[in-house]
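If your schedule permits, I should be very grateful for your opinion on a structural question. I would ask you to consider whether the tokens describe a fold that such a sequence might reasonably adopt. Thank you for your consideration; the sequence and its tokens are set out here.
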Amino acid sequence: MARGGDEVPGKCLMASSTVAKRQHFESIWKLGGLTPWQLTKNVIHEADEDDLLGRTSGLAFNFLLALFPLMLFMLALFGLFASRSSQLESGLLAYFGDLLPPAAFQLLQATTSELAMSTSGGKLTLGIVLALWFASGGLSSMISTLNAVYKVREARSWFKVRAIALGLTLAISMLLLSALVMVLIGGHLVDWVGAKLSLQSTMLVVSKALQWPASLLFVIVSFSAIYYFGPNLPEQHWHWITPGSVFGVLLWFAASAGFRGYLHFFNTYAATYGSVADVMILLIWLYVTGLAFLIGGAINAEIERAAQARLSRDE
């Protein structure tokens, strides 16, 4: 018979760990004990103190440098599904088409078409590998800015940080590919059901309605993964969805829609910037993207700090 003294400590440790995880999960959705107004004030103060607006400028520039290599790598992945490559490419562009301003989308679409012609049927050449390396540069800059938001110093080696960025780039690319494949399969399924029930128009509306929540969930999980693996924190707790990721993604969608509306009614970029107007519009959209991401990270950081302070007081 096993001795109780040998088992109780292990059981207590597991129980205390489970309780700690549950308390942390509850705490993050209770905003670490902060009221929404207190959290808002703290985030605004930290955004000013950490110069998030200035940091976002550098982030947007790195996004611009990483965007097209990422598109090249995604096209190479699509080449693995030769019979569906064009449909996957169309699905990827459709996602961007819903978010990007029309002028910036035209630039992205034209560049993507040129890249598609240069990928030699999707073969993974040295150029594709280099594209993945450069695409991970955007994630590296996100990791650096998250360290500033969380007020931690980077103690990991350059190689480890770059490996994390590379891994996140691969993971997000595979998530995006999976989402596109699911949408593609779901589209065929919807068409089949609609044809069987003679409800083609209704099923088309249902299919379109389901694509937006799926896109929203994909981006939220991607944000959560970067918030979890990015900053150099001594202890992290994984959550599929966090207040920061939800707010950041919703802010991103709202800001993208607002920017599209502004350009529709008050587009003066062509008169101001001439032939490079499309590039400027794309860069501004990337700035909006980076700012939404950093604000979401700041929200999570403030909640984590408040929860930790509350836990220390309770002890």
Summary: The two ends are 37 Å apart (CA to CA). The chain has one domain: 34-314. The CA atoms of residues 19 and 25 lie 10 Å apart.
